């Protein structure tokens, strides 16, 4: 991708070769390592680091002071709040080298990571899940789950638009966008497609 097709602030460092999609904006004091993959229409705020084996999808917004280390994968439309903490080693020591043991952390499409949230490596954050500010997430998170606390636990569910939804008889409808959901068991919800009106 030609540099003319994306924006990099003059204070940032982009090591080549790497992949940066069209219309992406990289702001002050960022460092993009060689080999990094960043999609199109992304926004990287001040002081963002992206490792050479990190993958960032299209339309991802990363706020200030976030380090996206090797092994982190963010799918499309992820929102990453200020000072979110990613990790990639389970047993970290300064005097040992464990690059071959880096754990992959996957943040699925549309998920939100609140400011100062911390993610243990090796987990999956589900589609459109919402991680509250300051939460410490130590295990996989279901699609649409609302997670808060230390350690993080699910306190409810959210719509794709981000509004909290309430279930009655395993059914829910978003009060904001009217999307409908069905609860399957205690840890899984499924978005229902709007039924097509029958013709006479």
Walk me through this protein's architecture:
- The structure is a single chain.
- The protein has strands spanning 7-8, 13-14, 19-20, 25-26, 31-32, 37-38, 43-44, 49-50, 55-56, 61-62, 67-68, 72-74, 79-80, 85-86, 105-107, 112-113, 118-119, 124-125, 130-131, 136-137, 145-148, 153-158, 164-165, 171-173, 180-183, 189-192.
- The strands form five sheets. It has a ten-stranded mixed β-sheet, with no helix packed on it. The protein has a six-stranded parallel β-sheet with strand order 3-6-9-12-15-18, with no helix packed on it. A four-stranded parallel β-sheet has the order 2-5-8-11, with no helix packed on it.
- The protein is built from no helices and 26 strands.
- It is an all-beta fold and 200 residues long.
- The termini are far apart.
- It has one domain: Hexapeptide repeat proteins (UDP N-Acetylglucosamine Acyltransferase, domain 1).
- Residues 195-200 have low confidence and may be disordered.
List keywords for this structure.
single chain, 200 residues, mainly beta, UDP N-Acetylglucosamine Acyltransferase, domain 1, ten-stranded mixed β-sheet, 26 strands, 0% helix, disordered C terminus
In short:
The chain has 200 residues and is mostly beta strands.
Q: Topology, please?
A:
Blueprint: E1 7-8, E2 13-14, E3 19-20, E4 25-26, E5 31-32, E6 37-38, E7 43-44, E8 49-50, E9 55-56, E10 61-62, E11 67-68, E12 72-74, E13 79-80, E14 85-86, E15 105-107, E16 112-113, E17 118-119, E18 124-125, E19 130-131, E20 136-137, E21 145-148, E22 153-158, E23 164-165, E24 171-173, E25 180-183, E26 189-192
């Amino acid at each position: 991708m030609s540099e003319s097709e994306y924006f990099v602030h003059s204070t940032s460092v982009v090591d080549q070769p790497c992949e940066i999609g069209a219309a992406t904006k990289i702001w002050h004091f960022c460092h993009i390592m060689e080999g990094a993959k960043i999609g199109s229409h992304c926004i990287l705020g001040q002081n963002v680091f992206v490792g050479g084996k990190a993958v960032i999808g299209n339309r991802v917004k990363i706020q200030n002071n976030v380090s996206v280390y090797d092994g982190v994968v963010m799918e499309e439309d992820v929102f990453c709040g200020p000072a979110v903490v990613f990790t990639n080693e389970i047993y970290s020591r300064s005097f040992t080298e464990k690059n071959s043991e880096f754990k992959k952390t996957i943040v699925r499409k549309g998920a939100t990571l609140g400011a100062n949230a911390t993610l243990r490596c090796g987990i999956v954050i589900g589609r459109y899940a919402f991680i509250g500010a300051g939460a410490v997430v130590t295990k996989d998170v279901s699609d649409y789950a609302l997670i808060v606390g230390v350690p993080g636990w699910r306190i409810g569910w959210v719509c794709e638009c981000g509004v909290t939804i309430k279930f009655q008889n395993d059914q829910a409808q978003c009060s904001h966008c009217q999307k409908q959901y069905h609860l399957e068991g205690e840890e899984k919800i499924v978005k229902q497609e709007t039924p097509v009106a029958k013709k006479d």
